[in-house]
Design goal:
The chain is an alpha/beta fold. The chain folds into 2 domains: 110 residues, Rossmann fold (3-Layer(aba) Sandwich); 106 residues, 3-Layer(aba) Sandwich (Rossmann fold). It contains 13 helices and 8 strands.
């Protein structure tokens, strides 16, 4: 199957290893992954900041670039949610394309029927279900099912898992004090699990959490789920 990768702005700029992991996973399953080089932002930050016209232009651009592909995979549930829920409001005809866009774990479990990837990751791990994955993209239990199948991985429950990490895109910039307070609660919850790794399906949330963990010097690190599931794993 030919699948297009929508890598996202944060993935492209800060987490190229996540994009490479996505490609490795899908190629290992026998799929061809293509990268439309003309892709840009999905417009989420523009819409959240009140720049609706600019967001609409990006939504139309996204549709034009990804229209030729039957399936589009994205390692970010927040960007998937933007394309599915808000692009149809911004760009006429975007509804049909949104039905072809999947977050990585839901693509694997719910579309391709795969849970066992042959991955190995001998670490204690906790999973943060991000706000967008729960309430917008609604990817369900796919991440848990994949993590439970990883050899050597000890999955521990995160207290108050559904609580926000405090990122929220521009919220973290415009409301820094509130963002930091929310993040501190999340980091305390992670520390209580004694996990070595906190994983999630959104690079943006992992950027926020990873920064908090590093400042608190807890010893835990943030890592995208694709890098745990990918061939060979990160070690």
């Amino acid at each position: 199957m030919r699948i297009a990768l929508f890598v996202t702005c944060i993935g492209d700029t800060l987490y190229p290893s996540t994009g490479r992991a996505v490609v490795g996973i899908l190629e290992r399953l026998g799929h061809e992954v293509v990268f439309p080089a003309a892709q840009t932002c999905c417009g989420q930050m523009h819409l959240n900041s009140g720049y609706r016209d600019q967001a609409a232009k990006l939504a139309r651009r996204f549709s034009a670039i990804f229209a030729p592909y039957d399936l589009i995979v994205c390692p970010s549930s927040s960007c998937v949610g933007m394309v599915r829920e808000f692009h149809p409001q911004l760009a006429p005809g975007a509804e049909e394309l949104g039905g072809r866009v999947f977050e990585l774990t839901e693509l694997l479990v719910h579309r391709l029927g795969v849970e066992e990837l042959g991955a190995s990751f001998p670490h204690r791990v906790t999973y943060h279900p991000t706000c967008h994955s729960l309430r917008v993209a609604r990817i369900g239990d796919a991440p848990y099912r994949l993590l439970r199948a990883v050899a050597g991985l000890e999955l521990v429950e995160l207290p108050d898992a559904a609580e926000c990490c405090g990122f929220g895109g521009t919220f973290a910039v415009k409301n820094a004090e509130s963002s930091i307070a929310i993040l501190e609660d999340k980091c305390r919850a992670i520390a209580s699990t004694r996990a070595e790794v906190c994983t999630a399906v959104d690079p943006s949330c992992l950027l926020q959490i990873g920064g908090g963990l590093a400042r608190q010097a807890q010893g835990a690190r943030a890592l995208h789920i694709a890098e745990i599931l990918g061939p060979g794993g990160p070690g």
